[in-house]
Design brief:
It contains 2 helices and 6 strands, in the order H-E-E-H-E-E-E-E. By secondary structure, the protein is an alpha+beta fold. The chain has one domain (38-174): Nuclear Transport Factor 2, Chain: A (Roll). The chain has a 6-stranded mixed β-sheet. A hairpin with a 5-residue loop joins strand 5 and strand 6.
Amino acid sequence: MRVVVVAVLIASFSTAVARAQVLDPLAPKQSSSQATNPLTNPGATPGVQLLYDLEAKFAADTARGGGPAFASWFAPDAVTLANGKAPVVGHDAIAAAATWTPDAYQLTWTPEGARISASGDMGFTWGHYTGTSKDSNGGTIKTQGRYMSVWKKQPDSTGKVELDDSNDGPPANCCSLH
């Protein structure tokens, strides 16, 4: 169930983090020589870097807390769209659907890019996700796909996901940006 993920805000939300962000908390750290990776691109604007920082926090929370932590990042009026499924509308409905535990299902993702509005109050990220679980025999089930998350600055100045769209897709190495 990737079912959902991330992306927007303005530089006034908080201080942008200038260090590289690795979103899969279980993955090894990337070297700083990977200048083509948008997460380590020193030319990223403060707004885009803020989106990457939000993504990193969102991913880390989800890795630790599973579905309930995942759902906590959604705005009250958020919408999730998943491949072959009906839209899920509203934070409460998203939370009701996101009940997995980290030991039963691991959802990880890595953004490949981000954009933020000129006003800094909305933005989006896109990238690749992987979901890992076990079947009834203990075998690994892995789903992969693409996602896009739209972020919006909320009245309390926090950034929340307004729209998360995901679809099953090819492996991550098929379609990288050049």
